[in-house]
């Protein structure tokens, strides 16, 4: 059920948006025929062969010691993510801190690494860039993108000018694996590319009063959950004439050859269904306290917002770091940079903020080939309780979901004819539905000739306790949604670059106090200009509109001075000052991206005058002038 | 905060305010758990209100006196440091899985209704005193869901503030909680300030100058006053009392129809420990079969309101244009859920099941926001019964209508997301003021004019008095005086009508807020005027000449302590009556038909002997309530048993109140074997029965 729900959603999304999401269509539970001789004993009694050791089948896993600089030609297990963070911290102790944000349902630590140069200021006084990944346990390469970002920032600090500036100017908060239990189990347990997405909060997915009682089973013990098929003259499929590993739907009048039985597994609870209630299902990206909806509205919501303890801990982590102004949450797959809103009901998004999003989103499309910058609810599908909606609307951060990996890059095709478009043709909806096998044939050739067979298990006979003689085969766990390790280095670097581009756009605010103009005895006109050299404003327009957090302040003070009046300067070409009727010495403001805002104060007295700018997200600045 | 004045009429705080003594706890020796009631008959005496700390102390007392029959669950600690303590009463205390259904009772989620916390304590007493109440039920009772706010009533100055003690920058300036109200006149009450202001929107009510109403420019009226809550502009920003201490109103923080970005709703649904603890407790206890909230609303009287826009409607689904073309659908028309599923099914990958859930999720159809029709049926029937109950207890006097549940409230969350019957009780509102209905006596000045003297005398003093009141005659004109005049022939009704026409009419109170009017009447009649502070001049540091006055906090929601016992005795027992209506599942009967060759057709009827459905219609929709399960077993683990149809484990998703469902199996069984049939459910009871296959009919239980 778990997977059924989300694959279903993705499937519909594909139908609608014709997006290039890699779809593994093997998630369908099948019903044993009535001829099934015996019902299985309930609750895993029929669990078959032992799962194989992960090292044997987990493609791209290394047993090498993790060292700095980090390598990205392999994947990091949960433990290795920890090793990598500790190795980075040991190498760059001045620039990094490791926090345990919280613990998972199974008691694993959720780590965050902060990169900040304390010599240039406290982290909270700098624009914060928060990056996480792997909120879905199977979407592991998101963790490698996070590690790659950390590795790039730290290993080239002091050598690469841009990276040095980023570390000095920003605070980076990085949680490589949010769903740590999911990451652990994805590596250690038999899985398909889409399983182990859930948080480990047991739920009764099929509403039968039992919890997580019928997961998929690794029948052949190869560490992968593949697909089951059975010879069946009345089936709806026949062998693909071009590649016998594939099947095609029969046309009217044709004789069938195969019935597809769904994912590898048995009917553990004897209810006549196979694999209908696996682990969870609580989807980490449906459980946030924003526009949350209960599970009957959307599978995987959890019974209440922040039911997942790790998410609750991360929410506190975020709220405690109000300087965060940019958020990236990495997932797989499809090659997308998504911005909110995640439901139609939340439209319209503040148009000024859309302009800011566009700066980063449109660049991300160019930084990572084949990726598209899209709107979450409209171009993909609606989600309630969505993380980036939370960070945009509660933390006040420009927030993206990065959907990593485009399966079209698994190519085996002739060079484009002169004049023809170089890019692969967009995936056809029917490809995804299994009705047209062109893409699958190409992917199999990619498997055969580019990965030397790493990604696909040929069909093999198996005696199934309920279905009888069947065959098991198909794409392995470390395929389909994950790049082959040889492609990983490119993927992590390009996507980390999208984050670095955004970090470079964060507000960079400076303060100018123009020479005080004496207008009377002991009365001065003081002009203050606040300039933002970043293209992101000092905080979101949404935060103003919805009063999410306090605005920036500009405070004028001095021992021997009194602020008589003060206000914002506006109006071109003739300037006017909108004097603030109360507390003129405290002004509230937002500094626009690549822009400025000016204030004018009438100050009486003599002596030193201090002008202090303070922002939750854009740091602080102080200038002092003498009135004389 | 500064209090700048010591003058003013130092009105005594209402008699309802705290008197000071600690909880009245009868010294009792612990008694055996078999008869817990005697020990705790009155952990508190309902002669005054009890602070949340006192209520917690009372729960500890109860628990100490009844260690076997009760347990305490500390489900959260408020930001102000007060525990949210749930008292468990029932036979499943200490068990990990509670077999008996439970009723979860919360109180004072709003924080400003001390009467509701008293009701929860009173209920605890009643449950402990009534052995039948816990025979087949567990009770979870939380007297204070919003304890920080609940302390307001026991502090000075008195102010009804629903927020907990978390910090929140209400005005999003550079300071937090810097400008709350101030008791300027030192009377221990936060009331209102009225200030003459050319931009004022308010004016006095003509017939009752103590009351204020908004001027109606359409009628040529001009406002005289601006109204503020009592206080100064502590932070000098031109606003008064715009950022007082406190953060979140727990009563609006649950995730059904939660509104983000409000001043008092919190950062997200469940952002506060109180709300989170309550949600977690309710979800972690699937045995909860009913919830009950003592508070501001009354779902015993008023079925949940419908008519809300945007509710999920499975019979009229619109398919957005960009999707419609893919599905071959018409974006201009509506479809039923079934039709949408049929449209999409052919497009799905092989063997892939398109469910209604997938469609609902993908189309973003959203949550149910109106009560289900089937549920309104039992709400209506029980409401009628409750009205009879109130009538019998003489508590059916006309009073102000309680409000409907608020968005984000506990009770809406419970009904819509827990999917269990949810009731609430407000216990008291102000008595309704008799309306100024002119048609009551049926008389008008015109009919008086046409009346004979004899007919006028025949009216009698009472009716004449009512008529005088209706026409707004001054108090100086007494009915006896008029009767005497007519009897003696000194005046005719016609003359009288003319005279009345010339008299200055007593002004009516049109336009005044009905609640304020009711409060004023109640205050004058029952509180010796202490429910309302008359407007008194005051020299305000920034506003200049103002007047302080208005409603005394809590006077509109919290009756004098002397009334409490009567109110509780007359209403709280209804909770026990409702609990008797819970669904009760049992095995009604079985039937066995031998088919030959060791094959039998087994039929079993499972009954819901309770009044309420299992589960509610909303519970059917949201699938939150686990199904009941019937399991067939034999002594030797089903050895030799073959199920030709049916399975060992059969789920039952729903049985309406007073109905039964039929389950059937076709089994091949070795000779002499019978079935142990077990019925189990999370929150509707359990049963077991041995079904012998030898005799045809089922044996005894």
Provide key terms for this protein.
heterodimer; A: 628 residues; alpha+beta; Aminopeptidase; Immunoglobulin-like; eight-stranded mixed beta sheet; six-stranded antiparallel beta sheet; 14 helices; 24 strands; 24% helix; 25% strand; B: 701 residues; six-stranded mixed beta sheet; 17 helices; 22 strands; globular; disordered C terminus
In summary, what is this structure?
The complex is a heterodimer of chains A (628) and B (701). Chain A is an alpha+beta fold and 628 residues long.
Topology:
The complex is a heterodimer of chains A (628) and B (701).
Chain A: H1 2-17, H2 54-57, H3 78-91, E1 96-103, E2 109-115, E3 128-133, H4 141-155, H5 161-169, E4 171-175, H6 180-188, E5 227-231, E6 237-239, E7 247-249, E8 258-263, H7 309-319, E9 324-332, E10 336-339, H8 351-367, E11 372-375, H9 376-380, H10 387-395, E12 398-404, H11 429-433, H12 438-449, E13 456-464, E14 468-475, H13 485-505, E15 509-513, E16 517-520, E17 523-532, H14 541-546, E18 552-557, E19 561-570, E20 576-579, E21 586-589, E22 595-605, E23 607-614, E24 620-627
Parallel strand pairs in A: 3-4, 3-9, 9-12, 10-11
Antiparallel strand pairs in A: 1-2, 2-4, 5-8, 5-14, 6-7, 10-12, 13-14, 15-17, 16-17, 17-22, 18-21, 18-23, 19-20, 19-22, 23-24
Helix pairs in contact in A: 3-4, 4-13, 8-13
Chain B: H1 52-65, E1 70-77, E2 83-89, E3 102-107, H2 114-129, E4 138-142, H3 147-150, E5 192-196, E6 202-205, E7 208-214, E8 225-229, H4 273-284, E9 288-294, E10 317-318, H5 321-327, E11 334-335, H6 337-344, H7 356-362, H8 373-392, H9 410-418, E12 422-425, H10 445-449, H11 453-471, H12 479-487, H13 493-502, H14 514-526, E13 532-540, E14 544-551, H15 561-571, H16 573-579, E15 585-596, E16 599-608, H17 617-622, E17 628-633, E18 642-645, E19 649-652, E20 660-668, E21 675-680, E22 687-691
Helix pairs in contact in B: 11-12
């Amino acid at each position: 059920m778990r997977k059924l729900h989300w694959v279903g959603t993705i499937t519909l999304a594909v139908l609608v948006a014709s997006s290039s999401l890699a779809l593994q269509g093997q998630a369908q539970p099948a019903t044993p025929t009535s001829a099934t001789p015996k019902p299985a004993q309930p609750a895993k009694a029929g669990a078959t062969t032992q799962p194989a050791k992960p090292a044997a089948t987990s493609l791209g896993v290394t047993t090498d010691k993790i060292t700095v600089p980090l390598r990205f030609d392999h994947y990091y297990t949960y433990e290795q993510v920890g090793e990598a963070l500790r190795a980075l911290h040991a190498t760059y102790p001045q620039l990094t801190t490791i926090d345990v944000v919280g613990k998972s349902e199974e008691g694993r630590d959720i780590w965050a690494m902060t990169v900040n140069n304390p010599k240039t200021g406290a982290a909270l006084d700098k624009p914060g860039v928060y990056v996480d990944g792997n909120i879905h346990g199977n979407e592991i390469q998101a963790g490698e993108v996070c590690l790659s970002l950390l590795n790039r920032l730290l290993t080239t600090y002091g050598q690469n000018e841009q990276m040095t500036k980023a570390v000095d100017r920003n605070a980076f908060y990085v949680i490589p694996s949010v769903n740590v239990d999911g990451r652990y189990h994805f590596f250690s347990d038999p899985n398909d590319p889409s399983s182990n997405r859930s948080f480990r909060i047991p739920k009764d997915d099929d509403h039968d009063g039992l919890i997580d009682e019928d997961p998929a089973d690794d029948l052949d013990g190869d560490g992968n959950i593949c697909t089951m098929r059975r010879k069946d003259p009345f089936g709806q499929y026949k062998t693909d004439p071009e590649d016998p590993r594939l099947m095609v739907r029969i046309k009217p009048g044709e004789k069938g050859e195969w019935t597809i039985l769904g994912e590898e597994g048995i009917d553990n609870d004897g209810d006549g269904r196979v694999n209908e209630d696996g682990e969870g299902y609580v989807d980490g990206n449906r459980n946030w306290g924003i526009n949350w909806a209960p599970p009957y509205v959307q599978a995987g919501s959890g019974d209440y917002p922040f039911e997942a303890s790790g998410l609750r801990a991360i929410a506190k982590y975020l709220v405690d770091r109000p300087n965060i102004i940019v958020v990236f949450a990495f997932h797989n797959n499809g090659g997308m940079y998504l911005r909110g809103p995640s439901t139609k009901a939340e439209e319209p998004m503040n148009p000024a903020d859309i302009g800011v999003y566009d700066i980063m989103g449109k660049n991300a499309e160019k930084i990572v080939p084949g990726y598209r910058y899209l709107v979450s609810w409209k171009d993909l599908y609606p989600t309630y309780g969505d993380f980036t909606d939370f960070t945009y609307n509660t933390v006040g951060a420009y927030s993206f979901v990065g959907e990593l990996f485009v399966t079209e890059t698994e190519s085996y095709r002739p060079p484009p004819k002169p004049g023809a478009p170089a890019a692969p043709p967009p995936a056809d909806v029917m490809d995804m539905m299994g009705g047209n096998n062109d893409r699958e044939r190409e992917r199999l050739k990619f498997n055969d000739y580019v990965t030397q067979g790493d990604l696909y298990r040929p069909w093999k006979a198996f005696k199934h306790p309920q279905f009888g003689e069947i065959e098991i085969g198909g794409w392995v766990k470390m395929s389909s949604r994950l790049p082959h390790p040889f492609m990983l280095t490119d993927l992590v670097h390009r996507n980390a670059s999208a984050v670095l581009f955004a970090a470079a756009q964060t507000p960079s605010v400076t303060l100018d106090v123009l020479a005080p103009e004496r207008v009377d005895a002991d009365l001065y006109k003081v002009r203050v200009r606040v300039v933002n050299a970043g293209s992101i404003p000092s905080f979101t327009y949404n935060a103003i509109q919805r009063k999410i957090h306090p605005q920036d302040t500009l405070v004028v003070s001095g021992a021997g001075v009194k602020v008589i009046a003060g206000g914002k300067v506006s109006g071109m070409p003739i300037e006017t000052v909108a004097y603030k009727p109360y507390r003129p010495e405290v002004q509230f403001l937002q500094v626009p991206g690549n822009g400025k805002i000016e204030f004018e104060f009438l100050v009486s007295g003599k002596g030193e005058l201090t002008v202090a700018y303070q922002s939750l997200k854009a740091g602080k600045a102080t200038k002092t002038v003498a009135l004389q | 905060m500064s209090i700048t004045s010591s003058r003013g009429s130092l009105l005594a705080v209402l008699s309802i305010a705290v008197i000071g003594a600690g909880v009245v706890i009868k010294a009792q020796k612990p008694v055996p758990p078999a008869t817990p009631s005697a020990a705790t008959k009155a952990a508190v005496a309902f002669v005054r209100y009890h602070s949340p700390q006192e209520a917690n102390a009372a729960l500890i007392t109860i628990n100490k006196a009844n260690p076997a029959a009760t347990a305490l669950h500390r489900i959260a600690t408020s930001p102000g440091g007060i525990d949210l303590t749930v008292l468990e009463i029932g036979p499943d205390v200490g068990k990990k899985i509670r077999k008996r259904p439970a009723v979860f009772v919360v109180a004072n989620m709003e924080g400003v209704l001390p009467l509701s916390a008293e009701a929860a304590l009173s209920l605890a007493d009643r449950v402990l005193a009534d052995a039948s109440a816990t025979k087949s039920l567990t009770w979870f009772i939380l007297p204070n869901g919003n304890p920080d706010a609940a302390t307001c009533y026991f502090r000075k100055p008195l102010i009804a503030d629903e927020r907990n003690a978390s910090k929140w920058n209400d005005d999003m300036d550079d300071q937090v909680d810097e400008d709350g109200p101030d008791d300027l006149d030192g009377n221990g009450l936060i009331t209102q300030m009225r200030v003459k202001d050319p931009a004022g929107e308010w004016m006095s009510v003509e017939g009752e100058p103590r009351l204020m109403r908004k001027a109606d420019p359409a009628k040529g009226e001009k406002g005289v006053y601006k109204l503020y809550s009592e206080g100064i502009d502590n932070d000098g920003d031109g606003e008064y009392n715009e950022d007082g201490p406190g953060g979140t109103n727990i009563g609006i923080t649950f995730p059904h129809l939660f509104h983000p970005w409000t001043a008092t709703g919190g950062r997200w649904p469940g952002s506060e420990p109180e709300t989170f603890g309550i949600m977690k407790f309710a979800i972690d206890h699937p045995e909860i079969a009913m919830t009950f909230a003592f508070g501001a609303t009354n779902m015993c009287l008023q079925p949940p309101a419908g008519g809300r826009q945007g509710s999920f409607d499975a019979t009229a689904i619109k398919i957005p244009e960009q999707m419609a073309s893919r599905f071959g659908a018409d974006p201009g028309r509506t479809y039923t859920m079934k039709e949408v599923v049929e449209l999409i099914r052919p497009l799905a990958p092989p063997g892939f099941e398109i469910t209604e859930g997938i469609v609902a999720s993908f189309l973003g159809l959203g949550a149910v926001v109106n009560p289900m029709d089937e549920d309104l049926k039992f709400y209506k029937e029980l409401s009628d019964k409750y009205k009879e109950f109130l009538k019998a207890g003489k508590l059916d006097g006309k009073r102000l209508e309680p409000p409907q549940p608020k968005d984000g409230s506990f009770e809406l969350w419970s009904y819509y997301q827990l999917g269990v019957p949810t009731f609430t009780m407000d216990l008291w509102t102000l008595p309704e003021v008799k309306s100024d209905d002119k048609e009551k006596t049926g008389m008008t000045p015109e009919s008086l004019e046409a009346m004979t003297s004899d007919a006028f005398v025949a009216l009698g003093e009472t009716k004449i008095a009512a008529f005088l009141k209706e026409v707004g005659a001054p108090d100086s004109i007494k009915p006896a005086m008029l009767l005497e005049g007519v009897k003696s022939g000194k005046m005719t009704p016609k003359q009288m009508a003319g005279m009345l026409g010339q008299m200055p009419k007593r002004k009516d109170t049109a336009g005044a807020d009905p609640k304020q009017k009711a409060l004023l009447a109640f205050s004058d009649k029952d509180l010796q005027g202490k429910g309302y502070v008359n407007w008194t001049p005051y020299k305000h540091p920034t506003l200049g000449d103002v007047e302080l006055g208005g409603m005394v906090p809590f006077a509109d929601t919290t009756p004098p302590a002397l009334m409490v016992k009567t109110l509780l005795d007359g209403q709280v027992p209804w909770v026990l009556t409702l609990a008797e209506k819970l669904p009760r599942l049992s095995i009604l009967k079985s039937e066995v038909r031998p088919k030959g060759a060791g094959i039998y057709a087994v039929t079993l009827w499972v009954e819901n002997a309770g009044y309420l459905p299992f589960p509610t219609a909303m519970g059917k929709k949201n699938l939150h309530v686990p199904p009941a399960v019937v399991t067939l077993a034999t002594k030797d683990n089903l050895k030799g048993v073959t199920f030709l149809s049916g399975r060992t484990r059969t789920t039952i998703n729903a049985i309406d109140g007073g109905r039964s469902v039929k389950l059937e199996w076709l089994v091949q069984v070795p000779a002499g074997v019978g079935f142990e049939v077990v019925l189990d459910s999370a929150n509707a009871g359990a049963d077991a029965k041995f079904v012998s296959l030898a005799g045809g009919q089922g044996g005894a239980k």
